[in-house]
Amino acid sequence: MRTLIKNVEIVTMDSDNHYYPSGVILFSGDTIEYVGIEQNLPANLNENTEKVKEIDGRGMLALPGFVNAHTHSAMTIFRGYADNLPLWEWLTTRIWPLEEKLQPGYTYWLSMLAAAEMISAGVTAFSDMYMFMTDTAKAVEDSGMRAVLARGLMGPDDQSEQRHKEVEELAEWRYRAEGRIHMMISPHAVYTCSPEYLKTCRKLAEKYQTGIHIHMSETAKEVADCVREYGKTPVRHLYDLGIFELPVAAAHCVHLTDDDMDLMAENHVKAIHCPSSNMKLASGFAPVDKMIERGITVALGSDGAASSNNLSIFKEMSLASLIAKGYTGNATALSAETAVKMATIMGAKALMLQDEIGSLEPGKKADIQLIDMSGPHYYPKEDPLVHLVYSGYSGDVDTVIINGKIVMEHRKLTTIDLEQVYREVDNVARKIK
Amino acid sequence: MRTLIKNVEIVTMDSDNHYYPSGVILFSGDTIEYVGIEQNLPANLNENTEKVKEIDGRGMLALPGFVNAHTHSAMTIFRGYADNLPLWEWLTTRIWPLEEKLQPGYTYWLSMLAAAEMISAGVTAFSDMYMFMTDTAKAVEDSGMRAVLARGLMGPDDQSEQRHKEVEELAEWRYRAEGRIHMMISPHAVYTCSPEYLKTCRKLAEKYQTGIHIHMSETAKEVADCVREYGKTPVRHLYDLGIFELPVAAAHCVHLTDDDMDLMAENHVKAIHCPSSNMKLASGFAPVDKMIERGITVALGSDGAASSNNLSIFKEMSLASLIAKGYTGNATALSAETAVKMATIMGAKALMLQDEIGSLEPGKKADIQLIDMSGPHYYPKEDPLVHLVYSGYSGDVDTVIINGKIVMEHRKLTTIDLEQVYREVDNVARKIK
């Protein structure tokens, strides 16, 4: 099955920043065949006996699907449940006690709710760290999304063995759902994992030939505690434990020293910036401009809906640029274009999927969003990325394609029965709240 | 003509914070008659011979229309035109040269574009400071919006006389359009108006028995220059000139001393917080938490589309809360409820219209927005204000009523022909860009 999106404005986010005021995108099955002006379409298009489905992209901007590089998808159940609290109190008095009541099966519906929200906001791939990950894998399969899943690990403690069993079960889902399911290994953070246990996690990642997804230097308290206990920052601590010998995607990275950032750059550690979570929980402002200057890949993450309340990368993209300017006092810091890169190709790199997704170019997977640019907030026409970052919002995403399949068409989800999801989420809420 | 909105969740924002999980709003002509549960509806409803129009509010949240307390509506023409520049360079090298080319008549269409954008985002009233204000008055009349208009004044210089003539012309529009048009006097700022001229503006405001709308302490440079020239901050300078003896709405208020804030509180000066403009132009973070603590009314403004790129108060409301938490390091700073107050009743106070708008209660004007809360980003159901501020976006506004008239119904504008506005804005762009 081949599909042709016609008459569409295209921002490819490829390495040459190709841009087409009006062009076409042709994909076959799950893979992009051609992106460019219609006149240069491969000549064999109509010779092929296969029927070509056409999508009219008039008034739309085609952009790679957004990548939500750090979330805890099942935490949608906690959205708005415990606001106005600092991180530690929030975790210990509100979230953790409820999490103890979660059961296998529940999280499928909570992740389906997250998938519905993410697709509605143009997110086509996400990186998840949580529990009951085979539930989430099933939700990824059914919703049509692409994901890198990781069982959150802490320890050692009396549940470590059970958690490792869950890692094994998750590994059975790897590459399933037409190749949309991937995995990483996720030690939670330096304050919940001993040095020995972090080495165990490293071995696990080596066993599965994958990378590490970890919370790093999120709060001033985390850094101060680490310095007190180990005589060094979390970044230096992880480096010394050999964690950075593997690919690492580190969420938050708010409180970093220059030495930390140098270590991250030298070791190709990817940062995942979560501005709304960092502001809402008063964790602080991450030095994104300094990381970008050093050549560090900085992706964007919404964090879980319990902390940031929503899973929209559109919002994080806007915040990332605005905060960087406000925080540095430099109005030229973190341009709109950089913010869109963080939301797309840099996100793909953090997920180790840069060869598959993150830009619109032949050979990559057809993970595409069409954004309706006809609203008055996008007028007059100027640089579409500037309009997107400073004026846009999630509701402008009109159509979403993942792995060549339309998962939302004109704002209607095609893979998810939202009413059913709401009913099942209410069931879970009744059981645990 | 009476209208009844039924089965709707209602956040009144009245002084008792009345909230109805499911209620009704009855309005007659331009005025609200009843807000509350359906059972207590006035008994005479059906005795009246007038037909009652019904609106089904199922799945919707009714909220007072948002107030955009500081904007330059005609600057929509500059949206995305000059990004990534600091304030002074941006004004002098990009905006002012183009503004010189604006002509009477042009700004009508630029303000119509702004009105379309604001209505689409749930804004029902705005406070404008710019030139060719009778154009904007006509746009307010035609779009159905409510506005407080002010001709921006600088001086004295050789154009002061012409500007004062424009103030007189604007005064002829006052109270027209079913009473939706109001006016204030707007000296631009302490760095563009001499002390003598500020006193002239004060006299003008006294003549028209209205208040002052001014930019105040927006940048560190403005404050430093004022201290160098007059030996005091802009706030103290304005106080000493007697400006605070009138009602004052001061936009930005980013760089304030404790003494400044005390002066503002004592003199009931209203602040208008413009977070996205202040971040995008790297002006800084306003001490909103400290102002609120002192009892200062803090409204929200989008600023012009040239600086902040859009006119959505939804976005400013979310930013105000998030930034306050991030900036103060206190996760309990500026709650969602306070942010919504800033967007509604505090905005009404800044516009001197608190007796007319800003809350849903009998006797006030029917300026109402219905927000579609059926999306996955609002699930599960919790405090609607928390969901709005941290998860919501402008596109969720479904229906907007101003002065009892439906100006947007299910996302369709009823008073504005958007295609015509786009054509006319393109004409202006061709002439000046």
Summarize the topology.
The structure is a homodimer of 433-residue chains.
Chain A: E1 2-11, E2 19-28, E3 31-36, E4 52-56, E5 60-64, E6 66-71, H1 87-99, H2 106-120, E7 123-130, H3 133-143, E8 146-153, H4 160-171, H5 176-179, E9 181-183, E10 186-187, H6 195-207, E11 212-216, H7 220-230, H8 234-240, E12 248-252, H9 258-266, E13 270-273, H10 275-280, H11 288-293, E14 298-300, H12 313-328, H13 336-343, H14 345-350, E15 368-372, H15 384-391, E16 397-402, E17 405-409, E18 412-413, H16 418-432
Parallel strand pairs in A: 1-4, 1-5, 6-7, 7-8, 8-9, 8-10, 11-12, 12-13, 13-14
Antiparallel strand pairs in A: 1-2, 2-3, 5-15, 15-16, 16-17, 17-18
Helix pairs in contact in A: 2-3, 2-16, 12-13, 12-15, 13-15
How would you characterize this protein structure?
The structure is a homodimer of 433-residue chains. The first copy, chain A, has 433 residues and is of the alpha/beta class. Chain A folds into two domains: 118 residues, Urease, subunit C, domain 1; 285 residues, Metal-dependent hydrolases (TIM Barrel, Alpha-Beta Barrel), CATH 3.20.20. Chain A contains 16 helices and 18 strands. In chain A, the strands form three sheets. In chain A, strands 1, 2, 3, 4, 5, 15, 16, 17 and 18 form a nine-stranded mixed beta sheet that branches. In chain A, strands 6, 7, 8, 9 and 10 form a five-stranded parallel beta sheet that branches. In chain A, α9 links the parallel β12 and β13. The longest helix of chain A has 16 residues. The interface between A and B is large, with 68 and 68 residues.
